[in-house]
Amino acid sequence: MPLTPLQIGPMHIDFPVVQAALSGYSDWPMRTIAHRLGAPFTIAEVMLERFILEVSKGRHASRFLRAGDGEFPCGAQLMGSQADDFTVAAEKMVDAGFDLIDINFGCPVRKVLGKCRGGYLLSTPREALEIVGRVRDALPARVPVTVKMRRGMDDNQESLDNFYAIFDGAFRLGATAITVHGRTVRQRYEGKSSWRFLREIKRHAGPRTVLGSGDLFNARDCLDMLAQTGVDGVTVARGAIGNPWIFQQVRALAAGEPVPVPSLHQQREVLREHFRLAEQTHGPRRCCAMLRKFGIKYARLHPRADEVRRAFVEVAEPSEWHAVLERWYADDLPGVPPGGREEATPFV
Question: Which of 177, 182, 204 is nearest to 194 (CA)?
Fold first, then answer.
C-alpha cells in the first residue's frame, strides 16, 4: 500500500511515520539512530521555554541544543506558560539549527499541569492561541510551527469545545500541522487511545495536516492508524524506545514486504553505536545512567529478554555496558519481533 509523503509547510517529508518528542529520551543520539534506521523526521525531547532561555554553553547546552547537524530534518518541542518566553526560546532553537517548532499542549504530568503548562493550556484557549500566534509571528516563514494536543482535558462538553477552539484557531494563526493524541489529559497514559476521535478530527480538518498519536507500538499499529483514521501521518513515541528499527519495519510493511527483524549481531552494532553517540554527547560518567533505560527496552527484542534486561539494569560503567554486549549478543541468533510473529505479515 503506497503511502503519501508528508508536507508540513515548506518541509517535505518522504514518509508519513515520524519520531515523536519523547521527554528524557529523544536526545541527539536517539534521533540520530532513528534517522539512520529509516525515520524521515524526528522531534527533540520537550524543553521548557525558561530552560532554553537560561542554557547557553557547554556540554549541558549542547545536549539540548544540538539539532540534526544537517543530516536530517529535526524539530524542537517547547512547553511553558508565558508567550513572551516562548517566542525568544523558539528563536533560539531555530538559531541552533532546528527546522520546525512544535508547541506542547498535551503533556499530562501532574507537576506540569500544576504550573499551567502542557495539557493545562487545553483548558485556556485564549492563552494557548496567544502562544501559537506569537511564536508564528516571531519566526521566519520558512520555519513551520506545529502544535501537539490531546483530545481535551477530559470527556465533558466544555473540554471538547476548548479543543476545537484551539485546533481551529491554531490553523487560522498559521500552524501548518497539528498532532492529536487520542487520550485525554486526565487519562495520562492509561486506557486506550481513541482512534475514532482521530478519524472525526481528520474529517473535520479536511485538507489541513493532522498527525495521529497514541498506542503505536509496532509497525502494524502505525499502518492501522493511517488506514483507520485517515490522518496524514503518525508520530511514534514509546514504540520507538528500544526499537529504532520500527521505521524500517513500517516502510517494509507498507511496501508489502515482511518486517525486517534485527538479528542479535545487528542489535549489538546499534547498541554499540548508541553508546558511542551517548558518550560523545553526555560524557562517560553520565551516559551509562542515561542508557540503562534504553538497554532495558532494547532487551525486549532479545530471545532471553528478562535476563538481558536485568544485565542492563546493573550497568554502572562503560566497561559493563560492553560486557553485556559481549556476553548476551555474542551469538547471531534471530531477534524477536516487537509485536509478535503475527505483526511481521506484509500490509496489503
Answer: 182
Q: Where are the alpha helices (DSSP H) in 151-304?
A: 157-172, 195-205, 219-229, 246-254, 264-282, 284-298
Long-range contacts of 249-253 (CB under 8 A, 24+ apart): 249/218, 249/219, 249/338, 250/17, 250/38, 250/219, 250/222, 250/223, 251/15, 251/17, 251/38, 252/219, 252/346, 253/219, 253/220, 253/223, 253/346, 253/347
Provide the 10 A C-beta neighbour count for residue 50: 16
CB 3 within 8 A of CB 254: yes
Cβ atoms of 211 and 235 within 8 Å: the answer is yes
Question: How far apart are the C-alpha atoms of 31 and 227, rounded to whole Å?
Answer: 26
What is the residue whose three cell numbers read 544485565? 311
Q: What is the pLDDT of residues 204-233, one digit of tens each?
A: 999 999 999 999 999 999 999 999 999 999
Residues of the chain with pLDDT under 50: 341-348
Please say if 287 is a catalytic residue: no
Catalytic residue among 107, 222, 287, 288: 107
The Cα–Cα gap between 123 and 129 comes to 11
